[in-house]
Design brief:
alpha/beta, Rossmann fold, six-stranded mixed sheet, 11 helices, 14 strands, 28% strand, binds adenosine-5'-diphosphate
Length: 315
């Protein structure tokens, strides 16, 4: 059995005026919790649509558990559950009927009905099974979307922005649920705009930018490799009028109230020297905080390059 959950091989997608994917190649490993990140227009949805068989690559190939999504699409589809952003449903069906129908489309019979009831329970939908879908709130519909993608117990689960626009409580429920699925052996692929979500959940991160894979790295290595840390100095309000020393001034990222935020390059800028320099200029330091960079800091740095204004560029 293959160790690879999804393999992308030199995937290109050209629309009339846009080269949305420019030769994307990487593997998502079986059993990992993978975060697919990237700014708007990077190509994430296009890559997922191709994987789900909803769009065709212009060239290259995608396989799920070794099954090519074009030539072996039935097996690929069976192995994959995709939680889309939007719910397309027949308003006259109840939640339970709709899930059973969905299982039927996937080639499953009554043997998965107990699993459907379990899904309803785990997504806190157990008392909504008989309701018609149009009676549900937005958050409840979101849960149904997730259940719908899982009716056939796919080994590989892709969640496309599952928490966009949901409240904090549902976000927690969904995070916990995806963690349970992961612990039960499912491969999880998450696309998200919330970087703290990727930071909290994912083992490995891929960053797409302008249709190319820019980063593919273990999350901890990515966080650890980043050569900066942040230092905030709260200065006494009745400070001096002296300027900060030039070598401190060039590290300043932001000033608010009496606080200055500095970005220090590891191995080059030293906290002790900065503090001595600020004190030496006559300032009194009231409080000091340091912070390691978050995935968000790294993401912004990696994707906000000088040509970011051309996101979605033509080629
Ligand atoms: P993301 O999901 O990362 O925001 P998308 O995959 O939606 O990015 O889009 C990648 C690029 O492809 C964008 O420039 C987008 O405008 C373009 N694109 C996506 N779908 C279509 C389409 N159906 N027709 C033309 N261009 C498209």
């Amino acid at each position: 059995m293959t160790d690879t959950a999804i393999s992308f091989r030199d995937v290109h997608k050209r629309f009339a005026t846009t080269h949305a994917l420019k030769g994307v190649s990487f593997d998502i490993k079986r059993g990992e919790y993978f975060g697919l990140l990237g700014p708007n227009g990077a190509g994430k949805s296009t890559l997922i649509s191709i994987t789900a068989g909803l769009a065709q690559a212009s060239s290259g190939s995608v396989a799920v558990l070794g099954h090519d999504v074009v030539t072996d699409y039935r097996a690929a589809r069976r192995a994959l559950g995709v939680v889309p952003q939007e719910l397309v449903y027949d308003p006259f069906f109840s939640v339970r009927e709709m899930l059973r129908l969905q299982a039927g489309y996937q080639g499953c019979g009554k043997e998965v009905w107990p699993w459907i009831d379990e899904l309803l329970e785990r997504l806190e939908l157990e008392d909504k099974g008989a309701n018609s879908i149009r009676q549900l709130s937005g958050g409840m519909k979101r849960r149904v979307l997730i259940a719908q993608a899982l009716v056939h117990k796919p080994e590989v689960v892709i969640l496309d922005e599952p928490t966009a626009g949901v409240d904090v409580e549902l976000r927690r429920t969904l995070w916990d649920f995806t963690r349970e699925l992961h612990a039960a052996g499912h491969t999880i692929v998450l696309t998200t705009h919330y970087l703290e979500e990727a930071e909290e959940l994912c083992d490995r991160i891929g960053i797409l930018n302008h249709g190319e894979l820019q980063v593919l790295e273990d999350k901890n290595a990515l966080l650890g490799r980043h050569p900066y840390r942040f230092l905030s100095l709260e200065l006494a309000a009745e400070g001096t009028t002296e300027a900060l020393p030039a070598y401190v001034e060039r590290l300043v990222e932001d000033r608010h109230d009496n606080t200055i935020d500095l970005k220090l390059k590891q191995g080059e800028d030293f906290i002790g020297e900065v503090i001595e320099g600020v004190r030496g200029a006559g300032w009194r330091i009231v409080d000091v905080h340091t912070r390691e960079p978050s995935l968000e800091n790294i993401f912004v740095e990696l994707t906000m390059d000088e040509d970011s204004a051309t996101t979605g560029d033509t080629a």
